[in-house]
């Protein structure tokens, strides 16, 4: 922990200051080849980009349902290749039929994703908490290694240019 915040967590026996800034000393990257994308409702919505796969409209997770392309009553399975995100009106319109039987088309054929979902926090200079700025060195022209306290800090993206709004994975 680098810096405490003004907030505290209290237990019966002690009070603990909530950290405002944490310093990551080591990073162990995940080996993506060994990991499998978990089949879940949230990951289906992520794969489909929050889009109804029948009408193509964007929705929030609360407005989407999961739909079996080939209904279970017709032998459809619970799999990446048979389940898509659908808005409630499209799902009701399709009912227990295949898209062809219902006269509907899929925006994109469902498939197993080859990526691992990750939590990404986007911070721009304007949205970064003030007390973080001294640690992040949000100067666009900061050279990595120029400051001994921040030897590996770099916002240079894979193309070699500096990101205006870096993402922290």
Structural notes for this entry:
- The strands form 3 sheets. A two-stranded antiparallel ribbon has the order 1-2. A two-stranded antiparallel ribbon has the order 3-4. A two-stranded antiparallel ribbon has the order 5-6.
- The longest helix has 7 residues, at 41-47.
- 13% of the residues lie in helices and 17% in strands.
- It contains 4 helices and 6 strands.
- It folds into 2 domains: 9-33 and 116-169, no CATH class; 36-102, Orthogonal Bundle (DNA Binding (I), subunit A).
- A hairpin with a 4-residue loop joins strand 1 (3-10) and strand 2.
- Residues 140-169 have low confidence and may be disordered.
- It has 169 residues and is α+β, with helices and mostly antiparallel strands.
- It has helices at 41-47, 88-94, 99-102, 133-136, and strands at 3-10, 15-21, 64-68, 83-87, 121-122, 167-168.
